[in-house]
Design goal:
Mean pLDDT: 74
CATH class: Mainly Beta
Order of helices and strands: EEEEEEEHEE
CATH topology: Jelly Rolls
Largest sheet: 5 strands, mixed
Number of strands: 9
Low-confidence stretches: 1-47
Shape: elongated
Distance between the termini: 91 Å
CATH architecture: Sandwich
Helix content: under 10%
Strand order of the largest sheet: 1-3-8-5-6
Structural class: mainly beta
Number of helices: 1
Oligomer: single chain
Length: 178
């Protein structure tokens, strides 16, 4: 026997399995997975990560989520006697004009972008250098930690098959010290 329409219970008697638009929380209550220009990532929001001690070359850190961030941390560095060159190296899905890694210092300032190269998923690293003033760098060193973020545009894929998981990067700090 098939129930008639009049025998069907009212939908209002059942809890909704998905909230209606009026029940949806505001998107502003949730952090964005891809920061916009006005939501520059902050190192204070960075996950706890092991800092590299007394070295000026970071580990190669993979991009684990398309359009995500890669964090770099150094500690026990000595003060600089001149300006510091921050060498950034990236590879992977970073060949188009809209694909880049924005390099952000620990004060939340963009040093600039590493736009990669012309080869989709190349195995060689593309290098872009930025200069940090000696006084700024030494202020960071005095805090005990020097940190950077590579904020990756959403178009850079962490999982593109052709790259075989090789969307990654590293940072090298070049400077003179006493």
């Amino acid at each position: 026997m098939t129930p008639s329409v009049s025998q069907n219970p009212s939908l209002s008697q059942f809890p909704s399995s998905s909230p209606s638009l009026s029940q949806n929380p505001s998107l502003s209550q949730f952090p964005s997975s891809t920061p916009s220009v006005s939501q520059n990532p902050s190192l204070s929001e960075a996950p706890t990560l092991p800092c590299l001690s007394s070295t000026t070359t970071s580990n190669v850190n993979p991009l684990t989520i398309s359009g995500g961030e890669i964090y770099f941390c150094f500690n026990s560095l000595v003060p600089a006697t001149s300006d510091v060159t921050v060498q950034t190296f990236v590879r992977g899905d970073v060949d188009a004009a809209i694909e880049s890694y924005d390099v952000i210092d620990q004060d939340g300032n963009s040093l600039g972008q590493n736009n990669g190269g012309d080869t989709e998923c190349g195995t060689a690293y593309d290098q872009t250098d930025f200069v940090v003033a000696q006084a700024t760098f030494n202020t960071w060193v005095a805090t005990g930690t020097v940190s950077f973020i590579m904020d990756v545009t959403p178009q850079v894929s962490a999982t593109i098959f052709a790259c075989s998981g090789q969307s990654d990067g590293f940072i090298n700090l070049v400077y003179s010290s006493r």
